Amino acid sequence: MPIHSLSRWRRQAELGPARVGEDAPHNDDRRRPEFAITPTPRLGFMAGGQNGLGGLWEGDRLTGHGADGPDMTVEPARTRQTRRIRVLLVDDHPLFRAGVGQRLHEHDPELEIVGEAGNSRQAQEMVVGLAPDVVLLDISMPDENGIDAARAIKGLAPATAVIILSLYDDVQYIEAALEAGASGYFLKTVKGSDLATAVRSAHHGDTVLGPEVADKVFGRLQARLRGADQPATWQQPSQRETEVLVLVARGATNKEIAKSMSLSVRTVEAHLRNIFAKLLVGSRTEAVVFAVKAGLLRLEEVEFAGCNKE
């Protein structure tokens, strides 16, 4: 199953100069692959590279002779060791986290699971403490939704790539996740091999989407292009959806809304997806702002500080 990449730039190998006479780091405990790269030494440069796209390099010194005869320290053929990609798993189901971790390792042993979190707060603490390269993030969690969590994580660690894993293929959620800074969006039905490839691609700066998700995004884009001169019209939410919207405007979380209306959290989430679709918005705050402008809510019913809660 193909993975769609939207990145403009391709990675290039980085081979940087180092000082003459500098010993390469040597660690006999490190795993060494069975192949070596043998560059041609040049006077005053290492015949190797810095840590970069090519990974970590190890080797011994040898002695060469320059034009004037004195010994010059250069580096011999070096063994290449790929740098592991550090991954943080965030999902409120431990069994799901364990399954994802196992599949990733099976398909790419260089993907290292450095931590697991069950909610957004734990995830943000681990991002600061563990400095993962990639975060795999559930979109629906107890304390805060994955979209808001992605935004918070990118604020804490802009270089960390975030990939959303979701049960929902609603285009509003997909767009909101990408706008929040996510590097990718996949359904939880994704194959382990595809997810492993996506993690590596996201780490290298690509934007990756599952095929079903990409179809939704491109379909939405095509519809917008075809109807660019005909603005889409919003639809009136149902009575039940309006009741949910009122509670959202008051700053209630999904759990609080569910308890207040005697509904399950999943049902509340379904109502919110319908609200987003009908009002042509991508977030809770946008829904409330739109509802006020359209006369669906009164300004006194709104508590904007709480509109981004999950």
CATH class category label of the largest domain: Alpha Beta
Quote the beta fraction.
Answer: 15-25%
Instruction: Please outline the major beta sheet.
Output: 7 strands, mixed
Instruction: Return the string of H and E elements.
Output: EEEEEEEHEHEHEHEHEHHHHH
Q: What is the CATH superfamily label of the largest domain?
A: Response regulator
Please tell me the total number of domains: 3
Low-confidence stretches: 7-80, 304-309
Strands in their spatial order, largest beta sheet: 1-12-11-10-9-7-8
Mean pLDDT: 75
Rg, nearest Å: 25 Å
Given helix and strand content, the structural type is alpha/beta
Describe this structure in words.
Mean pLDDT is 75; it is low at 7-80 and 304-309. It contains ten helices and twelve strands. The protein has 310 residues and is an alpha/beta fold. The chain folds into three domains: 7-82, no CATH class; 85-226, Response regulator (Rossmann fold), CATH 3.40.50; 239-306, Arc Repressor Mutant, subunit A. Helix 2 runs parallel beside helix 3 (146-156) and helix 7 (239-249) packs across helix 9. The chain is globular, with a radius of gyration of 25 Å. It has helices at 94-107, 120-130, 146-156, 171-179, 192-203, 211-226, 239-249, 254-261, 265-279, 284-293, and strands spanning 4-5, 36-37, 56-58, 62-65, 71-74, 78-81, 85-90, 111-117, 134-138, 161-166, 184-187, 208-209. It is 38% helix and 16% strand. It has a seven-stranded mixed sheet, with helices on both faces. A three-stranded antiparallel sheet has the order 2-6-3, with no helix packed on it. Strands 4-5 form a two-stranded antiparallel ribbon. Helix 1 (94-107) links the parallel strand 7 and strand 8 (111-117).
